[in-house]
Amino acid sequence: MIQRIKFFLLALVLLGAIWALNKHHPFGSSLPRLGFLLSPSHGFWKQAERQTPQTAKSIRLPKLKSGAEVLFDERLTPHVFANNQKDAAYVQGYVTASLRLWQMDLATRAASGRLSEILGEQTLEYDRIQRRKGMVTAAENELSAMKENPEEWAVMEAYADGVNAYIQSLTPVDYPLEFKLLNYSPEPWTPLKSALMSKRMAETLCSRNSDIPATNTLRVLGRESYDFLFPEYNPKQSPIIPESVPFDFQPIAPGTSAQPEPAMIGQLWRQPMMPTPPPFLGSNNWAVSGAKTASGNPILCNDPHLDLSLPSIWFEIQIHTPEVNAYGVSLPGLPGIIIGFNKDIAWGVTNVGHDVLDWYAIKWLDEQKSRYLLDDQPQKVTEVIEEIRVAGRKNPVLDTVKYTVWGPVVYDEPSSPYYDLAMRWLAHDKPTGNAFHQVGTFLRLMKARNYDDYSEALNGFDTPAQNFVFASREGDIALKVNGKLPVRQPGQGRFVQDGSFSGNLWRQFIPRDQIPQVRNPERGFVSSANQHSTSPAYPYYYLGDFDDYRGRVLNRLLEGMNRIEAKDMMALQFNSYSILAEESMPVFLGLLEGVSMSAAEKEGLQLLRAWDFNYKKTDKAPLLHRALLDSAYALTFDEFFDRPDSLAMLTPELWRFIDLLANHPDHAIFDLEQTPEKENAAAIAQKAYKAAVKAWYADLKSGKTDWGKFNGADISHLLRLPAFSRLDLYTDGHNNSLNAIRQGHGPSWRMIVELGPTVKAYGVYPGGQSGNPGSPFYDNMVNQWAEGKYNVLNFMSSPSDKLPKLLSTWKFKS
Amino acid sequence: MRFLILLAVIIGLSFIAQFFTPWWTFAIVAFVSGALLSEKAFQAFAAGFLGIFLLWSAQAWWLTIGNEGILAAKMGELLGGVPGAAMPWVTGLLGGLLGGLGGWTGNQAMKAID
Question: Which of A131, A168, A608, A796, CA to CA, is 20 to 30 A from A213?
């Protein structure tokens, strides 16, 4: 009897242990499936890849039309050799999935608001907003347009087939590590997921807006003060299209009767702001003509700045078919190459800051919010019920999203029974009127041979609008501010608009031949760094989020450069000079003139005086300058921060702030709310400087003794797991300089291409080709990137070309 | 001698089984081997523990050497600060404990039937 009890108890312990070790999050803990995870033939050890990957592999892909071959070079860049475009997309899908599958899954979940299925409650609110923004609707609209173009659709399907062929080759022990950690399986890939990737980029690049805080700010300040603090154009701006380029065309009329004044809305908007992409995102690109280079060949450069992450946002690839031979970076999840070159041309992109997201106040006619007013007529909303599945919950969370003529109602506040905000976003629109679309644009750029091909390719690209830079072996350089941009009434879209008046709809878009563009300008270079597209002379009104410093420093430096070589371009991409520092420092020093100071304050002043306005990692002055600028800004605009009514407010741009300090030192904005005295710019500067020296000393004490230690670039894993991230990288840069490294943001790919009899290309990105944290190719380029070093890109013309090192060859058969 | 046979059976069968069965099959192997081949409870536990400990830590060592310890270090950090070099031992220990428990339970099963 005792024996039986003993056995029974032991058996219970054994089964219990197996159960607990086999369960994800046992007993409500956050533990993974520990037994599975540690088992050397099942769990994480399967992802402990050998330093040298297996050399040869033969793969059968049933849908392949004819054979294909992939050669992996020393950095694991695949060189795809296929016999037609469809096969190339098929193999691209397979190869990309083999290295980046989990990232592709996560990105599409994040886009479509399906993170909670795997991450639980913590992402529920995020998912809800994604659904309310209509991300899936936007992707479906894009997809329906692509279906109308047989070439594009075939490529989308082939890519999905390739990804699926890879997924089908896996058993659960082969799943990428993160699937094991989060305990779920990859789903089949679909063209819709590729379209979601494209909308994810649109979300990152063209969903910034400030209508709501701008409206609040206008209400609080009044029109006069608002216009004074928020001028739309910096007179020192150096626009993308040189001012010498004439706009000799007849602009079309907006066709709207929009009211730029939000007078009739008459209320403050207390809704929380929809999370918008961080303001540090931006990019640089430029091309210099042969007249300015040592070799006489044009050179094209591009460094898109994005959230830095591991796995990296970019994936390097070469695609070779009888019609195409292109090299560059792709986005995992989308067929084709986004930024790259072939033997004849090179192209690159930076973001266009035009605002293409407007908010409209809906006047509800009932408390159930089922009908709203439009031009004195009642309108019914279309209700879409979103079902959000949440890990750990039995039943899905249901959310009813109301679609109006403007777009989805993103917020419906119970506390505001008669007014809500609907979102009008260009990325929702089905692309119409183009023979082909986004994927078609990049397929055409990949095989373009000259300016005309480039120009034709861009006709299919609507959104997110990009500054497409171009250079050709024939010697052309060009740049087009390319995309679909609404024709606005002057001022339209700066503030929340009346949603009960259809005159506020966008009705026209700038015709493609009237978009800002430049070809072979006198100055010998074209460039963009997210600044204003044009001077105010451009006949169309546009507003948006534009950079004020990088474009100016870029144009100034390029102007002065001659006999340029690739290494000069590398130095330029890594340049950390700041015009913000150059312009603000003398103003501050002037305001601090003759003020009595402590020894520490005097020492700080000497440091600032000696500064060359570079944000090098070893520099110490930028720490104090940052503290001074932040502190002075916070004191000056004290009216805007920590408001008792916690209203979201718009804050003035930095260039305007410096301008106010220098040219309007006695303006009322400098007066502090909390003191009886009346402060001016000098008083603010002195107060700010004393606070800054204290903050600077605190930085020094906490070990942040120079800029590199303070700014420490962070490349976080997509799940924010520090163990899989590269944090606190010691490197140069500032978001107002060309090398725009700012904590978790910065140059996500640096590329330099010199066209000529043979193409010479260089590139680097802060990551590695493999998405597997257990691979030596997960982060092998990070240190190089932090030091401003480049790889020579292996641009092959045939599979028999010699590579510095051939890591492996995959042969595909049908 | 009996111990060595038991050990060899557990290691051999678990090694083969792991490639096409769930991760916990080795516990069943240790249970059955313990039931059919062991003499004493401690012997069954020790063979199960040692067998799976050796099997798992050896495999983990083999993999981490080829990987130059990259993933072991990251997973160790993720699992609460285990040094990467200790990860194969931790792996072996977890498998070993479950293997030992399996062997011991198997041994007791026979005694319960008797």
Answer: A131
User: How many other C-beta atoms can be found within 10 angstroms of the C-beta atom of residue A75?
Assistant: 19
Length of chain A: 814
For residue A226, count other CB atoms closer than 10 A to its CB: 17
Residue A757 has pLDDT above 50, yes or no: yes
Token look-up 């000799």 returns A248
Of A718 and A61, more confident: A718
The domain segmentation of chain B, as residue ranges, is 2-113
User: Do A22 and B23 count as a contact with CB atoms less than 8 A apart?
Assistant: yes
- Alpha-carbon gap, residue A465 to A468, rounded angstroms: 9
How high is the ipTM of this complex? 0.97
Measure the CA–CA gap between A377 and A599, rounded to whole angstroms: 71
Nearest to B105 among A10, A721, A776 (CB): A10
Flag whether pLDDT at A264 surpasses 60: no
Beta-carbon separation of B66 and A50 below 8 A: yes
Count of helices and strands (H, E) across chain B: 5, 0
Q: Residues of A at the B interface (Cβ-Cβ below 8 Å)?
A: 3-4, 6-8, 10-11, 13-14, 17-18, 21-22, 34-36, 38-45, 47-51, 177, 721-724, 773-776, 778
> Residue A427 pLDDT > 90, yes or no?
yes
Three-class SS state of A759:
coil
Rounded to whole angstroms, the Cα distance separating A367 from A373 reads: 13
Nearest one of A313, A368, A323, A369 to A343, comparing CA atoms: A323
Q: Looking at this protein, which amino acid is placed at residue A742?
A: R
* Residue located via tokens 């990859």: A186
Amino acid symbol at A326:
A
Chain B residues within an 8 Å CB radius of A21: 24, 94, 98
- What sign does the CA torsion over A653, A659, A660, A662 have? positive
Are A255 and A505 in contact, with CB atoms under 8 Å apart? no
Q: Is the pLDDT of residue A265 over 60?
A: no
Residue A436: alpha-carbon gap to chain centroid: 24
CA distance linking residue A480 with residue A16, whole number of Å: 65
CATH 3.90.950.10 describes domain A579-711: no
Confidence of residue A273 (pLDDT cuts 50, 70, 90): low
Nearest-CA residue of chain B relative to A38?
B91
Is the per-residue pLDDT at A280 higher than 80? no
Confidence at residue A261, expressed as pLDDT on a 0 to 100 scale: 61
Q: What is the arithmetic mean of pLDDT over A671-688?
A: 94
Question: Under an 8 A CB cutoff, do B59 and A40 touch?
Answer: yes
Radius of gyration of the CA atoms of chain A, in A: 28
Write the Ramachandran bin of A222: left for phi over 0, alpha for psi from -120 to 50, otherwise beta: left
pLDDT score recorded for residue A144: 94
d(CA A800, CA A620): 51
Q: Where are the domains of chain A?
A: 579-711
Q: What is the mean pLDDT for each group of 10 consecutive residues in chain B (114 residues)? A: 92 95 96 92 95 97 96 96 96 97 94 82
**Strand ranges of the sheet holding A345-351, from the earlier edge strand across to the other edge:** A56-60, A808-813, A68-72, A78-81, A315-320, A325-330, A339-341, A345-351, A466-472, A477-482, A517-519
Q: A-B interface: how many C-beta pairs under 8 angstroms?
A: 115
Q: What is the pLDDT of residues A105-146, one digit of tens each?
A: 999 999 999 999 999 999 999 999 999 999 999 999 999 999
Hey, what are A764's tokens?
A: 């680097």
Measured distance CA(A71)–CA(A94) in Å, rounded: 14
Mark yes or no for CB contact A51/B108 under 8 Å: no
Give the pLDDT confidence of A727-756 residue by residue, as tens digits. 999 999 999 999 999 889 999 999 999 999
Distance of alpha carbon A808 from alpha carbon A79, whole angstroms = 11
Query: What average pLDDT score do residues A254-276 get?
Result: 66
DSSP state of A544: B
